[in-house]
Specification:
The protein is of the alpha/beta class and 267 residues long. The chain starts with 9 loop residues before the first strand and ends in a 10-residue tail after the last helix. It binds iron/sulfur cluster (2 copies). The site of one iron/sulfur cluster has 11 residues, from helix 9.
Length: 267
């Protein structure tokens, strides 16, 4: 393999605790990924190639949350070797679905799931990358959206400061002319408080948003929860809704915790 020109930025993709889904979004870009690959040197991306190059890297994308002491060590090393660090997906930006452990007893869970729980070395919480190291950009979603990823990388390669959407899913829903599932079906959609980036994917399928992109700028989830309570949605159901894939993030976590004692124990 010929050496890359020195001017090509060196890009790395890393994974901590996650399902690999956001890395698969990279691979699913296909021709668009190949076009990008001609403009950068992909130096470390184990999901795509076992040929890895040591750092330093110009841009590192990190998928997954911090769930073990080893994750912390790896993350600190990644940060040291990366000029720009970008977290990708709900696990990396919010702790992911594995953050459900944050409201439970991890040792009790390990005993229930594993025949040899003493072999499990896990922290009692699953936390976002930004709680451990400085993060330069966060791309949300479960998984991330391919179009938003391409736009982000294109802006970065052009030398611009990438801009990611901060508005709510409702705005995209209206722009696309989708029928509101709260109004027509009485579903507790989290679109009014969830960051856009998915193109209002779930309402486009007549489903309610469950907040996988996390809270949008200026989100008022408590007010939305109050509105849904007046529609007869039970508090424990609402708490589970806010305590989903991005439930460890402040506004959603505080809203879920405030929904009453019945809501403190997710089932
Ligand atoms: S379906 Fe959800 S995202 Fe769409 S307008 Fe209604 S509340 Fe907003
Ligand atoms: S509509 Fe909501 S739950 Fe569905 S993909 Fe978009 S942000 Fe995620």
């Amino acid at each position: 393999m010929s050496a890359a020109p020195a001017s090509r930025p060196r890009v790395a993709v890393f994974k901590l605790a996650s399902c690999d889904g956001c890395q698969v979004v990279f691979l699913n870009l296909e021709e668009r990924l190949l076009a990008l690959a001609g403009r950068v040197e992909i130096a470390h991306f184990l999901e795509a190639s076992s040929q890895v190059q040591p750092g330093p890297y110009d841009v590192s994308f990190v998928e997954g949350s911090v769930t073990s002491a080893r994750d912390v060590e790896r993350l600190l090393a990644i940060r040291r070797s990366s000029r720009v660090l970008v977290t990708i997906g709900a696990c990396a930006t919010a702790g992911g679905i594995q953050a459900l452990r944050n409201w439970a007893d991890v040792e009790e869970m390990a005993r229930a799931v594993y025949p040899r729980p003493e072999w499990i070395e896990a922290l009692s919480t699953s936390t976002p990358i930004a709680e451990h190291v400085k993060v330069d950009f966060e791309i949300s979603g479960c998984p991330i959206d391919g179009a938003e990823l391409v736009q982000f990388v294109t802006q970065l390669l052009a030398g611009a400061t990438p801009r990611l959407a901060e508005h709510d899913v409702c705005l995209d829903c209206k722009r696309l002319g989708r029928v509101c599932v709260v109004v027509t079906r009485g579903l507790p959609c989290l679109g009014p408080v969830t960051r856009s980036g998915c193109g209002a994917l779930c309402p486009s399928m007549r489903r309610d948003c469950y907040g996988c992109f996390g809270p949008c700028a200026g989100a008022e989830p408590r007010a939305l929860a109050h509105r849904y309570r007046t529609m007869g949605i039970p508090p424990d159901e609402l708490a589970r809704r806010f305590r989903g894939i991005t439930g460890a993030l402040g506004p959603f976590r505080e809203t879920a915790d405030g929904l009453g004692p019945d809501a403190h124990h997710p089932r």
